[in-house]
Amino acid sequence: MNRLAAALVLVALAAASGAWLLSRPQEIRVEAGTNAQAALDRAPPGAVVVLAEGKHEGPLTIRRRLTLRAEPGAIVAASAGEPAVVTVLANGASVEDITTFGGSTGVIVREVDRVLLDSVQVTAADLHGIEVIDASARISGVEVAGLKHPLAQGIEVRNADGRPDSVIESSTVIGGMEGIVSHVAELVIRDNVVRETTMRGITVTEMSDGVVTANTVERATGAGLYCGDMSRCQFQDNVVTGVAASDDGRSTEGWGLVVTYHAAASTENDVLEGAAGATMTSLGGKFTQRSPLEPGDGSRAAIPAGLAVVAALGVLGLLYAAARRPARWLARAVSPAGDRRGPSWLLSLGLVGLGVQTFHMIEHSLQLYRVRVDGIPSRGGIVGPRVEAEWIHFIYNGAVLVGFLLVVAARKAGWQPPGRQEIGDRILLAGVLIQGYHVVEHSTKLAQHIASGAKVNHGILGGEVDLVLLHFSVNLAVYLAAVGAAVAYVWGVRMRKRVTQRVLGFG
Question: Would you tell me the crossing angle of helices 421-452 and 467-486 to the nearest 10 degrees?
């Protein structure tokens, strides 16, 4: 028995050892002067490619989930004409303890998520230390110095809408025009040190969401911290000192913190010292008492929202009154032999359409709340800036118009709903006219988007009126038209009978 137990223990230990060995990532060591790219290309997913001490020729590209790591004294170099010394194109890849030299950029992360850049040193890059493009990454312990171009940026995250938040932490950037910067991205910037930049230290701009905490900005020129272009920024526990002035405009006069062009920012326990002063706002930029990344409360939306509702009802009422003759024409066009129930797909289509339009109405209501109650820049309600908004809205509103026209076609082909047909027809035709204008509006916005690339476009009336209120009103009118026509067509008779029987006691 003792021999059997001992044998079982040995078998278990052997199995555990085998499993441990199999679970260990394969390690591939690359000597200096050999082909590091070939080693990366042949390494299996999960492997660790280790660069030995010495110089390794770049550029290098990581195309699968693996770890590129360097021993002390290893360096990856590329010529100044190369886009990047190291490019990461794989989800979940890691670059650790690497020193890069040269290239337009030290490390580029492109169109992937969950990338780790840890203890990377970037030297002598031309335009960027680190670039994260349409991607997300965790950047920790990075050092960027010796940038060559006068417009260079240390660490930049851009065009990353819809990606998980990027995190930049415990890193150091020395020199360049901007130290850490985001464009159209969501990120957390914490515990970093930025020194001696020539325009801005830490920048959150172009409809970005940024949490900027416990950073140190020293001896910057222009502005220490910057929140601009409809961005939302939460600043907390940052220390900005020694910001000098430049002659590049009002926002670079030597401010500790600048909030501009319809951006919103909060500040808490920040130490902000600059030649021009602590803070500056311009062009609709504003400070909020609480973080603009969190919903607030208030009643400032009551009047404009009420006016929007009245406008929607007024337009719908006017068009309803004007639709008397067209509705009678539509009723005369209906075939007497038509099917009262209508085509089988019509009810299903109507229910789905109402459900989707209800979500759309919630979206615009939340957007109105954020802008008019919180005072936060318009960012798209529930889905925010995470989608190509102009394309989505153009396609969606075109589909809504097609849905209305299908119901008109069904009526003309002989569908006779059991309710108040004339009332339903008039409401339906009013909705067609409003949605027709809505499609023209979004067609114009889409054309402007294609021409300029801007994510927010004015359309026909946006330059003259409030875009948020305009589209809330139009969508509300369309929604009420859809619900009103449905009630009149389907439930009108039943509702009338119930009212007369239960309330009046007869019928």
Answer: 150
> Which of 233, 273, 280 is CA-nearest to residue 258?
280
Q: Which residues, at least 6 apart from 454, have a Cβ–Cβ distance to it below 8 Å?
A: 448
What does the buried/exposed string (b/e) look like for 216-237 if buried means 16 or more CB atoms within 10 Å of the residue's CB? bbbebbbbbbbbbbbbbbbbbe
Copy the structure tokens of residue 128.
């960027």
User: Cα–Cα distances in Å, from 461 out to 226, 422, 444, 458?
Assistant: 31, 33, 10, 7
Which amino acid belongs to residue 354? L
Question: What residues does each domain of the chain span?
Answer: 20-176, 207-294, 302-503
The 10s digit of each residue's pLDDT in 81-132 is 899 999 999 999 999 999 999 999 999 999 999 999 999 999 999 999 999 9
CATH number at 20-176: 2.160.20.10
Alpha-carbon gap, residue 204 to 181, rounded angstroms? 6
What long-range pairs does 115-121 form, CB within 8 A, spacing at least 24?
115/88, 115/90, 115/91, 116/140, 117/142, 118/94, 118/142, 120/95, 120/96
464 exposure class (CB count in 10 Å sphere: 0-12, 13-18, 19+) = exposed
Closest CA to 40 of 95, 80, 78: 95
d(CA 299, CA 9): 72
Residues with Cβ within 8 Å of 453's Cβ and at least 6 positions away in sequence, in order, are none
What is the pTM (predicted TM-score) of this model?
0.65
Strand 286-287 relative to strand 153-158: parallel, antiparallel, unpaired?
unpaired
